[in-house]
Amino acid sequence: MSQFPSHPTDSNNSATTDVTPVVALKELVARLHREQNKIQDLLSSLGFALRSFTNLNQFLELIPLMSTRVTDAEGSALFLYKPNGQIRLEQLHWQDSQQRKNIRKALENVSSQITLLPNSIPNISTGILDEQMHHYLGADVQVFGTAILVKHTERGWLYVLTRDPEYAWTETRQKLVRLVADQTAVAIENDELAVELRKKERLDQELEIGAEIQRRLLPRQCPNIPGLSIAARCKPANRVGGDYYDFIPTKPNPQQPRANPQMVSENASWGLVIGDVMGKGVPAGLIMTMLRGMLRGEVLHGNTPAGILQNLNRVMYADLENSHRFVTMFYSEYDPQTRILYYSNAAHNPPLWWHAATKTVTRLDTLGMLIGLDANSEYEDAEAQLEVGDTVIYYTDGLTDAAAAGGDRFDEDNFVTSFRTACKYCNSPQEIVEYLFDQVQQFIGADRQNTDDMTLVVLQVV
Q1: How far is CA 443 from CA 412, 448, 456, in A?
Q2: What are the two backbone dihedrals, phi and then psi, of residue 383, each rounded to the nearest 5 degrees?
Q3: Of 335, 334, 368, which is closest to residue 350 (Cα–Cα)?
Q4: If we measure between CA atoms, which residue out of 267, 286, 268, 269 comes closest to residue 277?
Q5: CB 365 within 8 Å of CB 380
Q6: Which of 107, 279, 374, 380 is the most interior residue, by most CB within 10 Å?
Q7: 212 pLDDT tier (thresholds 50, 70, 90)
Q8: pTM for the structure as a whole
């Protein structure tokens, strides 16, 4: 039986025909895999940049480059809205360096043609930009854009551009552009939050400096006045408050410095003052600081309490009128030799006077308007003869106006009742201060903070 040799050529052709589709498929899979890895690497790099960069402009420089790379386009442009309503070409990437200059000029013309009102920014449609871009770039440039949204508000647009007529805006490419735009929005929001945080930190530092200055202006300790025992406490609602109290020697020994209350002559009279600037916080604190300096200057002239308030009102009127704030103040002078308290009131809460002999409470008050309300206001002088065991309490309305969670206020009747109880059972002015603050805190709730400045000064004849 004869043998017929096979034909090698036919065999090779058959093998080639069978293998070629497989090889082609493998190459396609490998190419897609490389493309996927490239996109993943690019997006990973963008995520790393988002976490690492502290300079927003440095991060924004990457956005058009990344958009171009992940979509295999020729270029990309980032437009951002400015606070004045202008649209600015923030960053541009174009692969052909020779064409980049012309592309940039065209896109800058696009941005210069559009001005937005602030209220219209969230409602701008991509058609406005697209129309201008087709006009300046020409019909042969394909454009795909997506909005950059920060808290549901448009802050700009990211565009990908190409001249390739065969280029297709596949769903995957569109998703990649939107992903890069979302990363851009996150970077913008993070930068704005960082700016706000830095502002808050600076404000906190300034407030702390202001609070420290105010703490130094208020008396660090109560003075030693012959025949008196004194205690005081100021609790501002914020770090800087508008409550004010002071102890001012009015007849100091000329051989001793005024700055040291412990070195004042035993024959000196003492100015005891409490005041409250309308409002709270930094504005009230600034006025309080100015008021303190003005009052100390007036005390040096040796006028009566009413004269001091009258001159202080004239001096402060213009500044307080411009600030739309007013001041209540009770000014008094105590003479240790006679135990007489001379006083005048500018619409402040009248101090309470506990008479030890009769176990009764009266108010120390005179007619007088708020400081800063009328330049020609007049004030009255009055005096009280204190006896051993008597107690006088100066306070601000932050205590009587303190409100519980339900809205009820501590009110003046409760305050007088608490003061009467404290005078009966407390052994010192310091105990009285602590008792009254505790009563107010219990009323408003242990976990609630005071919403207004609270100040107490208690003096007791011993």
Answers
A1: 13, 10, 17
A2: -145, 155
A3: 368
A4: 286
A5: no
A6: 107
A7: confident
A8: 0.63
